[in-house]
Amino acid sequence: MNHDAYDDAYLAGILREVKTIALVGASPKPERPSHEVMEFLLSKGYRVIPVNPGQAGKTILGQTVCASLAELPGPVDMIDIFRNSQAAGGVVDAALALSPPPKVIWMQKGVRNDEAASRAEAAGVSVVMNRCPKIEIPRLGIG
Fold it and tell me: In this structure, how many other beta carbons lie within 10 angstroms of the beta carbon of residue 122?
């Protein structure tokens, strides 16, 4: 997979198929990008489960926050990573340990970890890096 340039059909296919998203690095602060993206995804009909150990048990945008991916209440289709590129590797490893693993790992704008992407792809998980679904959904005319 060429992670420097994604085919629009690849991105659109992911965003149309995905229903449940675990958003790692979710923030309760409205000014934070993760909060804005979570609000946008919820408005588009996705189920979004916030993941943030510092907010565990609280709610963000009405959704109960999990401390870690291991504590998710059930399977998710996609992991959306709002952590830095280095931290993304550990998030990917935690995602791959889930049973079943997610279908997609999405790393937000500015987040890229090629080694982690290779591990995910070797496990059959689709990967998107350095992109934001809040930008891609309207650009692709989805929802």
Answer: 9
